[in-house]
Amino acid sequence: MISQIFAPVPAAKSRCLSTFVAIARQSLPLPLRYEPSHIFAISGLTLLGFGFMTDSLTRYGGTMIAIGWASLALAFLATLTQDKLVYGRNRSRLIRQLDEVRRSVGLDDSILPESLEFLEGAAQQWERIEHSLQSQVWFEQDMLRSRIGAAAHGAMEDIVVLECGSTREAGLKDDDADRVLTASVANLKVLADHVDATSSALSSYPRENFLSNGMDPSGVGPELETLEQCLAELEAGKLN
Description:
By secondary structure, this protein is an all-alpha fold. The protein is built from 11 helices and no strands.
């Protein structure tokens, strides 16, 4: 995971965005995390390794070697043609492509300046939420913490797809995409504000024991109610 997140090209203007793109790729299901050429290459090398080690011990060694060479051949063909392949959901492919760009040349010089500024601003709000959720008071409210993290990640992913992708990735027409994009950015900032406010309230409300152990914090009702409303809006506006 460290090698995936590490960016060879230092990110200055896209620090938060680059972090999100790397984490978003790691959050994809394993088969959608890699390009077809990567999957075939890893499979081929693995089969060749096991095949050569077991060739003298079992009759299946030769079979694994043959399949391994075939997988490497498919990896080579996939490398030549994978830009033309539609592999996995379109948004998954877009995230993979953004992460490859991040790792090779960096996002600072690969995204239009106005789009980069817009996306980095949204990613800063996502990062605010992530940092707040690392405090001890949120680990005491694990279910709510998980919902907030998922809602923030989903909103930021929608923003990236809507801004960087085409109609095919977003699944929306231009007018609808603009409306959802504007709403997602606004809701993400509002969520960050409410998470900060609730964090402060959770840290200071009076209680018998310091640890709430997952119990509903009765001393911060208004803050939690407002936070719940914002979460509901984000969850309802999530793209499919």
